[in-house]
Structure formats: structure tokens, C-alpha cells
Amino acid sequence: MKFSLLIPELILFFGALSLLMLDVFFNKKNQRFIFFAHFFSLAVCGIALSFAVKNFGIPETSFNDMLNSKAIISFMKCIILLLLVVIILISVRFVFSLEKYGSEFLALMMIATAGGLIMISANDLLLFYLGLELQALSLYLLASFSVKSARSSEAGIKYFILGSLASGLLLFGISMVYGYSATTNFTVLQDLIGKLKPEEMPIGLVFGMILVATAMFFKISAAPFHMWAPDVYQGVPTIVLAFFGTVVKFSMVIALIFLSLNISWVILSNILLIVAIASIIVGSFGAIYQKNLKRLFAFSSITHIGFVLLALSPLDKSIFNSCIFYMIVYSIISLGTFSFLTIMRSPQEIENDETDEKTFDISSLSGLSKTHPVMAFSLAVLMLSTAGIPPLAGFFSKFYILKSAISTGLFLYALIAVIFSAISAFYYLRIIKIMYFDEPNGNLEIEDFGNARLVVFVSAIVNIGLIFFIDPIMNSLTNFLS
Fold first, then answer.
1. Which residues of 150-184 are buried (b: 16+ CB within 10 A; e: fewer)?
2. Cα-based distances in Å from 385 to 270, 290, 380
């Protein structure tokens, strides 16, 4: 067994436990401990990242073929860890406002990330479930971390109940798969499914695989299993939303991509296609009527999930690079967008659910170009990129998705995606119109926090300049997947 393949996950997990133990002994004695906790968490992430880079190399498996290591997996781990580093950097204000619970917040984010890394490394359904639950249990606590907010508590309860339901479906599905195939290993399952015709598949195995897929659709908030997403996105603290929308979303979707890559199944292909179109339609129409920015971006994320699943549905390994590229671009856009939300503040000194409702109302962005031109420009670039306007990165990510769909014979579905993408552009352009053509209404202040401002600006610049690096990135992803 090669423990080196698990070193990044172990470093994050034991780093989180060490931080909690240090907090017990030193937090009450030293008021500056929270500074140390922040730097300690960044150091732990940096060490984990360095070991993830070292794991690039020859494909290999370990732990009785349960853990998989490939160049593409190591690359994804590096991206996830980099996203976590950025989230920790922009979480400074929130961590300091928590007073006694700052270390717990940082530790939970590291544990959740460790679970995500285990998920994408898994070559067995049991290890996959272990990683997913390690992440999910941390997320339930993070969702309700703002103890003074009734909406945050409500979001945590909703997320816990529906997340537990999805986990139960996943575990039941795994038991069905094992009962009818006598294995939970991805490699063995792929060989078994490859030898059987669709009509020869045992009904119990089919039912088990459908339950596994359904549980993952719950986790990534794909329609029609998206009902929790808008309420949870609105209720959770903004920095937690940034973590959900970047690290968690990226790791969940990449895990689903690798799961589909490992188990190519015709019936799963049809399910992915149906869910993809449903997600694009629901996300596009659902966001039009939203006035709250958090809820709007929740429906926007559902649309993005639909695009990824559309390209994923043929289960053609040659086009999986377009799905991964889309998620990389989406994560960069989300990092900038959610970082902007973290610096939105109410002019009133008291912050509660009522002031948050006004702060994150889309009308609060009125006249932002006159009061904060740099932030308005950055957010406008991110919105245009999300809408798929050329020559920004979001256009090329959607272009490769649609190109992949057309190349696999899904022309009609690609056309549907284009039509609804044009519809969804309405609410992104509405944000730009409000920022540049409406007069300031005094409902919003932008916090003078350099870390988050820098992330917003850099994300916008990356979306502009990524056009010069698309070919090297796509070629690298193709080589990693081969």
C-alpha cells in the first residue's frame, strides 16, 4: 500500500485536527491565536498542495485497488487545493467576526476538502461514499455556522435533511450494486457491464446504478433534484457560499465525471441527457424571476451543471476534457463572483437577515459603476463570461461543450442548450444594466478588503486573458486523460 497517494488528504485532515487541539489550549490564553490559526491553515494547504504536485506521474492504484492515482487526478487535486487557499484568504473578516469559532470554521473547510479529494481518487464505491460523507458532514455544520441568523439555521436543517436522504439513496444503491455484481470496484464493474448487453443487465444492478446516479444529482443540485439549492444558497453565510460554489461544487462534479469515466453504461447515458436538459431549462427560467443575488446564482449554477452533463452524457472519453475545462472556467468565474458577494455590506451598522435581504437584492447594485468603477467592471466581465459572450473564457467553455455534443450526434440537444443560454443571458445583462445605467440607491457599501477585491479583479482579468492559453490547457487535459 502506498500511503504517498493519500498524503494530501491526510495532511488536510490531521492539520484540521491539530488546529482544533491547539485552539483548545491556546485560544483563551492568547487573543492573537486567530492570526496563527489562519496562517497555520494556509501552511497546511500549501504542504498538501506540494505533495499533490509530487504525485504527478505513472498511473497506479493502491489500498487493494480502491485508490486511484493518475495525472488528471493529481491536477484536479491541485486545483481544489488552490481554490481552498483563495477561500481561506478571503475569509479573514468572517473568521475574526466568529471570535470563539474561527478555528472550527477553518478546520471544517479543510476536512470537507479532504473528503472531496478522497472522492475524486476513489476507485471503489465504498471509498467514494466515505469521501462524500466526510465532506457532507462538514458541510451540514458550515451551512448553519452563523448562529445568530435564523435563515442560516434553516438552511443547515434543509441541507442536512435532503443531504441525508441523498446519502441514504447512495448507500442503498451501493448495496444493490454489490448484491447483484459481487463487487464495488470501478474497474471490475466496468468489465462486467462491458460484457453484458443492456437487456442482459440484472434489474437489481440497474436499479442500484440509478440510485447512485440520483444521489449524485442531489449532491450537485441538478434538476429535478435541485429544490434545496436556492434556499441553502440564500441562507448560508456568504463566505460559506463561496466555499460551496467553488471547492465543493468543483469536487462534486469532477467526482461525478470520474465516476462516469470509470463506469461507462448506456442507461446512465440516457439519464444524464434527460437531467442535463432539465437542468438547463430549470436554471434558465428559474433565475429570471429572482431578485436576490444568492438565489439567482443558485439557479445559474444549475444551468452550468446542465451544460456539463450534456457533454458528459455520451460517455465518450475523448470529450471529457471539455467537461473538465468547463468546470475550471466555471470555478474561476464563481471565485470572482462569490468573492464580490463577501464584500457587499449594508450601510446600517446592524447586520441581520433583514439587512442581508436588502444588501443582496439585485437593485442594491444600482449605480455601482459610479461609486466603485473597478469592482463594477470586474463583475460585468464575470457576468458577460458567465453568459458566454466572446471572447471571454465562458464563451470558449460553452463552445467546447456544444462542439462535443454535436460531434456525438446530440445536435438537437445542443440547439436547445443554445436557445436557453440566450434566455439566461437576460439576467446577467440585467445586472450590468443596473450597475451602469441606474442611479445609486444607498443600499450597498463595498467593504475595503484588499484580498477579496484582488480576487474579484484577477478573476475578471483571467477571464479576459484565458483566450491565449486555451489550446495548451485543452492539450494538457487531453494528455492527462489519455
1. ebbbbbbebbbebbeebbebbbebbebbbebbeeb
2. 29, 20, 8
Element (H, E) at 323: helix 320-342
Residues 401, 393 contacting (CB under 8 angstroms): no
What are 59-107's pLDDT values in tens digits?
777 778 888 888 888 899 999 999 999 999 998 888 777 666 778 889 9
Q: Using 50, 70 and 90 to split pLDDT, how confident is the model at 348?
A: low
Q: DSSP readout, 33-83? A: HHHHHHHHHHHHHHHHHHHHHHT-SS-EEETTTTEEE-HHHHHHHHHHHHH
CA dist 413 and 408 (Å) reads: 11
The pLDDT tens digits of the residues spanning 444-466 come to 788 877 788 999 999 999 999 98
Whole-angstrom Cα distance, residue 135 to residue 116? 6
Phi, psi of 449 (to 5 degrees): -115, 110
Whether the upstream peptide bond of residue 373 has omega within 30° of 0, thus cis, is no
The label of the residue with cell 431578485 reads 291
Percent of the chain beyond pLDDT 70? 94
With b for 16 or more beta-carbon neighbours within 10 A and e for fewer, the 265-301 pattern comes to beebbebbbebbbbbbbbbbebbeebebbbbbbbbbb
If we measure between CA atoms, which residue out of 65, 52, 72 comes closest to residue 7? Answer: 52
User: What is the Cα 346 distance to its own chain's centre?
Assistant: 27
Residue 74 CB contacts under 8 Å (≥ 6 apart), including other chains: 52, 53, 55, 56, 57
Mean pLDDT within 176-199? 84
Residues β-bridged to residue 445: 345
Output the 3-class SS for 336-381.
HHHHHHHCEECCCCCCCHHHHHHHCEHHHHCCHHHHCHHHHHHHHH
What is the phi/psi pair of residue 124, to 5°? -150, 140
Chain-centre distance for alpha carbon 234: 16
Q: For 67, phi and psi rounded to 5 degrees?
A: -115, 130
Winning range, highest mean pLDDT, from 15-29, 348-362, 381-395: 381-395
What is the amino acid identity at position 238?
Answer: T
Grid look-up 469592482 returns: 375
Amino acid at 136: A
Specify whether the CB–CB gap between 287 and 427 falls below 8 A: yes
C-alpha cell, 223: 434538476
344 DSSP β-pair partners: 446
Share in percent of the chain as helix, strand, coil (round to 5): 80, 5, 20
Cell of 118: 478522497
pLDDT in tens, 243-291: 999 999 999 999 998 888 777 677 788 889 999 999 999 999 988 888 8
